[in-house]
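Proteins fold reproducibly. Look at a sample protein:
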Amino acid sequence: MLDVVKMGVNAPKEHQRIIRKLTTGLDIMYTQQQILYEPLPETMVDESQTSATPDVLLFDNQTQKNIIIIEVTIPASEKKDFQKLQEIVDDYEIPEGFLYNYKTQQWRKYKFGQGEVIDKPSFCDSIQVDLNSFL
């Protein structure tokens, strides 16, 4: 199981700017009923206990399930953050997880039951949207 602190607080302005852009773009789509999942920043994946809080989480309010998590990183912590993302996706059976490195402008994608997806790593199958379009 996950350690209590998996995704710690990282709040440089550029990091927060990326989270804002992603959350805003996704929220517009959610409000206009173009996607079914509510985007939430810095939200615990398991409300019943202390758990990981990815930078952005898309939540299905009807089924009460986490559908997508997005983590924002930099080169120095990318490897470790991607390992944490994999653990969260696998432990909580979240369909898709994304990691965005804002210094290199590169995406990585991880799918539950499938592993890392190299082809179109910013394309989210669950909502049929290229997440990079919000940046």
User: Anything to note?
Assistant: The beta strands are 38-41, 56-60, 65-73, 96-101, 106-111, 115-117, 123-124, 129-130. The chain has a mean pLDDT of 91. The first strand starts at residue 38 and ends at 41.
